[in-house]
Amino acid sequence: MNKIKALFKIILLNIAVCASLSIAAMGVDQSNLVGLRYGPNLSWGGMVNTPLVWGQWVPQMNLGVRYTWLEPLGEMNYGTPLGLASAYLKMDASVEVSPFYGGYRAGLGLRPFKVNPQVEFNFIYESYFYFKSNLEMVNADVKGNGRIAETWNSDYIFDNVGKSDTAEFDYAQLFDMSINLSYTFSRGSIIGVVAHYVLSDISTDFDGKSYDYKRNIPVFSRDYIVELESFGRFPINNNIAVVYDGSYLKTGILRSGGSVKKESLSYRMCLLGTHISWKEGLRSFIVKAGLWSRDKTRFYNGSFAQKLLVQLEYKGYFSFPFHGNFPK
Predict the structure, then answer these.
(1) Which segments of the chain does DSSP mark as H helices, in order?
(2) Which of 55, 62, 283, 309 could form a disulfide bond with 98, CB atoms 3.0-4.6 angstroms apart?
(3) Concatenated DSSP letters for 65-114?
(4) What b-and-e string marks burial along 193-210, b requiring 16 or more CB atoms within 10 Å of the CB?
(5) Which of 282, 287, 241, 303 is nearest to 55 (CA)?
(6) 145 SS3 class
(7) 258 vs 255, which has greater pLDDT?
(8) What mean pLDDT comes out for the span 206-229?
(9) CA dist., res. 156 & res. 141, Å (int)
(10) Which of 64, 218, 40 minimizes the C-alpha distance to 126?
(11) Is the distance from CB of 277 to CB of 243 less than 8 angstroms?
């Protein structure tokens, strides 16, 4: 029986690597750095990340379509790529689906100043349905007996998803407020940091305990998540670039009557890879590898090999008639 379970997990792992696509990359969507144009942008694509060794990390995978309108704050032609000092109003909406959830995102963004470094403000509303995958999680481990490490891993998730006592659908909504600071060099390289503050509200019958599959972290039904991201893109030529993503996620803490009902949980991740783009940035493929780690050792009972990750991304933009490299 153990051999059958191990074989089943290996099959799932290979399916995750070979067959999954998504619109929402883990971390900053670096395809936007070369693919977005002023005016309408309609894209589709995919992402999967998975551990090299099964154990702790839950593989992430989903499919989606995204529409983004960038209205220039100045005299710019629709279809013109973004430059060193871009200013625009952004309207953004997407739908996505995964084995665990499906839903939509909608929001507004503003890059008000034609300066470099650039600053951008975003607000996004997210609405999802969990597909028999809203699971009870351990959020407090004050006695130090390792219960969080046992349940916050892929074995626990895949052993309990789809069980008969799981609701057919559970509803989640999130409010994501973020600020993006970036600097573009004259040769096209770009570095930046993004800070998110996310309010999470998940319907659940498990005394408020749940799991955010999109961000891969246990949460309470009403919680907040702080996410810090850093990124870099360094072109080698017009079609190939080296890319970097770093992220840190941390949830809120809940005390009641002097006792801890929910601890603040956190992890960090770092990925390095190659970005290949063609058709003037309207097609992109990214492959990255790296590792993740939980900040407290008592929240993790796996090996170092289980912290190694690989992530694949693909994104394509529909080409509108005016999508050309018009002069400014």
Answers:
(1) 2-19, 32-35, 147-151, 154-160
(2) 62
(3) EEEEEEEESSS--TTPBP-SS--EEEEEEEEEE-SSEEEEEEEEEEE---
(4) ebebebebebebeeebbb
(5) 303
(6) coil
(7) 255
(8) 91
(9) 17
(10) 64
(11) no
Q: Pick from 37, 33, 32, 30: which is nearest to 324 by CA?
A: 37
Q: What is the mean pLDDT of residues 41-70?
A: 93
Helix (H, G, I), strand (E, B) or coil at 257: coil
For residue 56, how many C-alpha atoms fall within 13 Å in the half-sphere facing its CB?
19
pLDDT of residue 166: 67
When pLDDT is averaged across residues 171-184 and rounded to a whole number, the result is: 94
With contact defined as beta carbons under 8 Å apart, do 53 and 308 qualify? yes
Residue 13 confidence (pLDDT): 37
Report CA dihedral (16, 287, 300, 254) to the nearest 10 degrees: -90
- 117 vs 114: CA distance, rounded Å: 9
pTM of the entire structure?
0.85
State the pLDDT at residue 70.
93
Place of tokens 């492959």: 287
The torsion angle over the Cα atoms of residues 221, 301, 16 and 305, rounded to 10 degrees, is 150
**Are 157 and 130 spatial neighbours (Cβ–Cβ below 8 Å)?**
no
Amino acid symbol at 164: S
For 44, the token pair is 């589709």
Of residues 30, 29, 32, the one with CA closest to residue 41: 32
For the chain, helix (H) and strand (E) counts, in that order, are: 4, 16
Q: Residue 262 and residue 253: Cα distance in Å, rounded? A: 5
